[in-house]
Amino acid sequence: MAYRNGTYVAFHANGTNIPGGNSDIDYYNLLKAWSSKTDDDFTMCNSHEKTAAVRDTSSSERLMEVLRDRLKNSKNMILIIGTTTKLDDDWVPFEISQAVDKFKIPIIATYTNISTPIKNPSVYKARWPAALATRINNETASVIHIPYKKTVLLDAIGQFSHNKLPKGKGLGFYNDDAYRSFGIVG
User: Fold this and answer.
1) Which residue among 31, 91, 95, 184 has its CA within the 20 to 30 Å range from the CA of 68?
2) How many helices (H) and strands (E) does the chain have?
3) CATH architecture of the domain covering 6-181
């Protein structure tokens, strides 16, 4: 049985691993930077760092095998949702399907360029990848929807797991009191 303590991070790479605003990799790198700092409380056991690295030139079968292994050892999944995430038609849909259908882990859907409380996740459905929308609509996904903010991410990572799913089926969100405790008003 897998020891599930990692947080898996899915994002639209847009065919590049080069930072600079062309993909959601910048937000993934920011998560890693927050986690590596020792002067604050943000910690994340990154599932991507718990298994062997794979090269971009690896076969699709090899990549799928490694991604499944990472997801198997994860307690939750952060899905970084930017303006182009819904356009990803290979890896993000695969990661969502495995996380929800096979490994039954909750998704922390975090929206880039959103800094106010998310109280009605359906407002953002135009950003959802089809794989996420389908699983929200058929109520198989457990999802908490949050802005891409450090304090909110830290709480969601620590709070939600395969053993403690967010409420609200696929449309979970934090209440006003929680947002106030994060220092976010809106």
Assistant:
1) 31
2) 6, 4
3) 3-Layer(aba) Sandwich (3.40)
